[in-house]
Amino acid sequence: MRTILFGCVSVSALAFSSLSAPAFAQGSDVDTVAPQQTEDGTRSLNTVFVTARRREESAQDVPISITVLSEDDLLEQSVFNVKDLQSTAPNVYIGQGGASPGALAFGIRGQFQNDVLTTLDPSVGVYVDGVYWARSHGLNANLLDISRIEVLKGPQGTLFGRNTTGGAISITTGDPSYDGISGHAQARLGNYNERDVEFVGNFPLVNDTVALRLAGAFSKHDGYYDNTNFNTELGEENTSSFRAKLRVDPTDKLSVLLSYEYFDLDQAGALSNLEFALPFPAAPEIIAALSTGGCLQGFDPTCPAPFVPGSQTFGQYTNDGLYNSALNADDNQTVNTETISATMTYDLGFADLKYIGAYRSMESDTGRFDYDGTPFTILHPQQFAATDQRTHELQLNGQLSDGRVDYTLGAFYFEEEGVDGNDTTALPLLNPSNPTQTLGELEGESWAVFAQSSVKLTDALSATVGIRYSEDTKSLDLKSRSAGVCSLSVGEPPVRLSPTDDCIVSQSRTDDAVNYLLSLEYNWTSDFMTYVKTSKGYRAGGFNLRGTTPFTYGGFAPEEVIDYELGLKSQMFNNRFRLNAAAFYSDYTDIQRSVLVPNGVGGVATTTINAAAAEIYGMEIEATALITDELEINASVGITEAEYTEFTSQCPTPYPTTAVVPCVNGTFDRSAEKFERTPPFTAGVGITYSKQFSSGLLTLHSDYYYQDDIYDVGVTQTLTPDYVQYIRQEGYGLLNARVQYKFGDSGFSIAAYGKNLTDEEYTVFQLDLASAGLGYFMNNPGAPKTYGVEGRWEF
Questions:
Q1: What are the two backbone dihedrals, phi and then psi, of residue 394, each rounded to the nearest 5 degrees?
Q2: 106, 140 contact by CB (below 8 A)
Q3: In this structure, how many other beta carbons lie within 10 angstroms of the beta carbon of residue 41?
Q4: CA 695 to CA 742: how far, in whole Å?
Q5: HSE value, Cβ hemisphere, 13 Å, CA-based, for 583
Q6: Per-residue pLDDT tens over the stretch 183-225
Q7: Chain segment 578-594, per-residue pLDDT in tens
Q8: Which residues of 584-604 are buried (b: 16+ CB within 10 A; e: fewer)?
Q9: Distance CA 275, CA 754 (A)
Q10: CB-CB contact of 31 with 1 (8 Å)
């Protein structure tokens, strides 16, 4: 069955998701009607029912920009993990979370947070079974027993609240059912020695009172990449997941759902490619150190002597093919998470009262990894983090005036504590300050109250009003040492803490915000609806973990976005053609951006401040068509134009002569830079052909996704424009296909699949370390062509 709602109506609809009830992310139900028949006996598009406004209705009738993928859709399109969702919705970017392959970074319509430090919050909220997951570590796991995935685009200011300026992704897993024993067993074999097994079982224990659902998965594959220095593989992955859900309905009015989830990742880390190196060394302090020593012999046995500044490079180690590098370190990255949640719903008669409480723990360690792509120790960091979060949410959902008014009242509480740190070695033969060690101990607390109501003004016209008040309090105890000596400074001008002092700086901040949503929806006919909406969202402020001076480790304020959108949803030709579209404009202020600042010891550092303002505008179009009863085609297009209206940074010293703008009064203008990891154009097309035979059902599916150019590390565009090519991933496309055969009513099916069938070479992360004084650019490659076979038994 195909059940994709092309919620291209994007942001607006998205914010509309906040329209009434606690939106899908708060646990709405979705039902998919099997292929329907029109009056003349031909097939029509499936109808997807949602209860995002606490009543069952067709998703086409709800002013929410939402793309819904059911379990069948995920199988049909070979969407094995969250990263694969990028190709299913326009204007969505999902990539590697900085140097942590175990984490994901999400971007929707230009709202993107590149780093996954716990002192920074994301701009796209991720919810699993209605629970907000503050940290994305572990989200790159294979999808296990998924009932549906919903992607909303645009600010989710009222019902979702903080950290959803870009949108929200809601993952709903399978719930226990009283409809008998059921489930499936699945095995997958593929190239790179892929071995995946999965089991899901549903077990009613007491008639209509108690049911249990168990799900488990184990996945392994060999490395995609080669370390030619050690003749080893990188990218090898071993994951395991387990989930147990217990449903108890002690009365007709009370329902309780308990859940436990465990995830473990063990991975031979990502491959670092040296993409380009400047004449070595680039940093003035390193030139001075080498000039006194004469030769680079201790660093590179092949170097000539004596040393001549600017004449030598380690560029000879630039990657020999995207999937091969000569590294002198093989790291092993681990991620472990546990999540426990309880959802209780009670029917009060006049309304439903719902409570969602959860605890989630996360531990992540990258190991010491090679960040330079050479057989020498130029930059070898290790990053680690561990957090515990607790959330509580209370919702009251009801109706008034014979159903003409829907309302949601609620309160939310979130608390988190943990540690985040790194241990970095850089040029140990030249740099006496090794290692650099940073440790942050953090605490966070957030609470909010919210209300939202949808009112049917006439039979065709409806209005929605929502408001939310949020308050965030954060604290950070920061420790930082270089070669065992405290490297933190305090005061103005900064003064280094003495060795006898405790090497710790404590900070705290409290921010609050009022977010809102206003919308109008008009149903011109039963198959054609338009809407207009405005909403406000905000992303919480935070602290810098990697700084050593008051300016570089200081806090930054929340960023805000006000969004305006026009959208439509339509069905035509006897429900055989569905077209959704949206145009949006966002006013983006107090943008949190990394900027260059003097580090106090003759060099530069990066720090996050509220440095910019911008305007973002664009559109989305999504369509699905039944060409014949057996052939279905879907297509989507996304356009995002993001332009800074203000963006300045302090000038580095010395100021590069290659800069395209002057240094004026100690600052330079960066407003012409491209947004990081924001493709201006995305497009996708999918074709599904199904043929019923007497022995079973044959399904053929193929899809193609294209993403335009994206950029990392924007400052390169302004200071060293000749090197922009090394922080730009040019536009590329990925071709996927799947063939599946279901053997009648037996429950057995077999399939063959292929992903990136043209073996497109692309990168998932790029970094400019020339601007940091190390003189090179590096990247991490994306996955090559993969393929395999799959067997499944549903019972």
A1: -125, 130
A2: no
A3: 7
A4: 8
A5: 2
A6: 999 999 999 999 999 999 999 999 999 999 999 999 999 999 9
A7: 999 999 999 999 998 87
A8: bbbbbbbbbbbbbbbbbeeeb
A9: 29
A10: no
